[in-house]
Amino acid sequence: MSIDTEIAYHHWANVRLLEHISRLKKDIFMKEVKSIFPSLAAAFEHIYKVDALWLKRILGEKQPDFEEVTFETPIDAIKHFESNLVLFKQLSSKKEIIVYKNTKGEIFRNDSQEIFRHLVNHGTYHRGNVSAMLHQLGEKSVSNDYIIFLREEI
Question: What is the CATH number of the domain that holds 51?
């Protein structure tokens, strides 16, 4: 499995869930829910912010901050994820050691491929939260498993 395939899966899974949510009740994206995130929008904002932070680290920013972003609609979120995908594709071909500081100021080193795999895994974890939140809101989720991606996209 190549890192490009993993990144494509990460993007596909985010978009698949967001498109599904866009077809549900109009207010569901922003509706408050008692969960790890206060809304579906907040869950996707978190995934996006973490992706963007790591992309900044890979690009060499010494101490990047989390980007302030608010998604008003699932389609708005998709547009933001599309912009990150462009950077993912540009950076994924390089395998290099990234030296960075975490949010506590501690210095770490990881190769860029490890970071990309971390982001895919992080997104998968929180898409699971989104699916649970949808059930709590009385809606069904949509499968976004890797094997489904492979069946549909490859």
Answer: 1.20.120.450
